[in-house]
Hints:
Layout: H1 17-24, H2 26-33, H3 38-45, H4 49-77, H5 79-98, H6 103-131, H7 134-166, H8 169-188, H9 203-214, H10 217-247, H11 252-280, H12 282-309, H13 316-343, H14 349-377, H15 379-398
Amino acid sequence: MTTATQQNPATGQLPGIAWFTVMSMVSPVALNILMPALPDIAADLNVSTDEVQLSLTLYLLTLAFGQLICGPLADRFGRKPVLLAGIALHFVGCLLGAFADDLQSLLLARVLQAAGGCTGMVLARTIMLDCYSRSQAAGKIGYITLSIALAQAVAPTLGGQLNLLFGWQVLFHFSLLLSSVSWLIVLLIIPETAINLTTSIRISTVLQRYKQLICNRSYLRYSASATLIACGFYLFIGTTPYIVANQMQGTSADFGNWFLIVALGFMAGSFTAARLSANLGIARMIFLGNAVSGCAALSLLAGLMIAGLSAATLSYLLLFLPMALYTYGRGLSQPNNQSAAIASSDIAPGAASGLLGFIQLITGALVTQIASLILELGTVWLAATLVMFVAGAFLLSRNH
């Protein structure tokens, strides 16, 4: 296995970071590009909101488990073979989705997309750690993280427009094209960077690391704090497409266009955190981020209650602007929660990071699946649930 003192011969031959950003964007684009089209897919396939919501839930669940097993597989078989196999699997999922004419085919397509697409997200970062020191890799990984954030920001807007113009099947064609380009990049440009491969996957060792992390109270508190705030975002993306389509008579393009400010809010918060965290410290940044998200959730709750009492028409500004502020707060708190969680344990950072991502995605999948139940209670309950999520995050942060 690669050690910190070994010099990777691929370092000098590693291609530009732009190539890695392409393969890391495959899964985020596939996840987010379909969101604005969910109401249209439900109508086209003649299924309920709960049923089509499974396409989002199963994607997140598969992505969560994929993050746990992708690393050990790459340690055993190498980075490049796992990347080629994973992106090929994603390609098959895109192809199946492009021709899906029933719910079962759609759900299988989403599972295959997530199972294969997660390799690009995870192993792009792993390759950086293979070839550079931790401090050098951090800067490279920053660009990869930014590319994922950009994909999350642009994909719903692009998806809304493409769905309106050509139908939802073309969204799978777009992901098909992106995965094809990514597969060729890995085949022709990306070198193998694992120096020494393990002789076995050693599942028992991996499980033992995860067990130690779960027993670490500080790790769990920071992880849970970050997860609760993230759940507010997952709840929003699980409900808002239907609010726009059914209550506001909007199109998928309307949702995509307005969602852009929500994604930009998270990017702005992350950028602010990068500039301020060193000076303010982790505890203050987490408190500040939670406070901003809390104010946003309360303002959304107040706005929806006033709109309901006055029988006013629900507006895009009322719905999306507070959520942009909420995600700005998430951008402030999440990097600090993640850093604190990983630093609170002496377990390998990769394992700690992978488990944290797993916890967030599993919980997010559950939240998106119950989103329709919350929506049935009324839009006010959407905001009230956001308030409860932030309150839970505040309680956890007080114990740090």
